[in-house]
Design a protein that fits this description.
71 residues; alpha+beta; 2 helices; 3 strands; 28% helix
């Protein structure tokens, strides 16, 4: 699988990074420090604010996690 690894914007502002996703965008990240948990919490906050719906999961080899904006 050919994966293009994305970078987190604005000094690890997970909510700002998720807001920059377009509907249907999928991006892959290396699990560094608490990034997965940070994105998980940001996703929950944005969904509670009705600011988008996201799917968060792991790639098959667990070297990367992926995030897709659904709406």
């Amino acid at each position: 699988m050919d994966v293009k690894v994305s970078q987190i914007k604005r000094v690890k502002s997970y909510m700002a990074t998720l807001r920059d996703f377009g509907v249907g965008d999928t991006k892959y990240y290396k699990p560094v420090d608490t990034d997965y948990n940070g994105f998980h919490n940001a996703r929950k906050r944005l969904e509670e604010q009705n600011a988008g719906k996201f799917t968060l999961g792991w790639c098959e080899d667990k070297k990367y996690f992926m995030i897709t904006r659904n709406e």
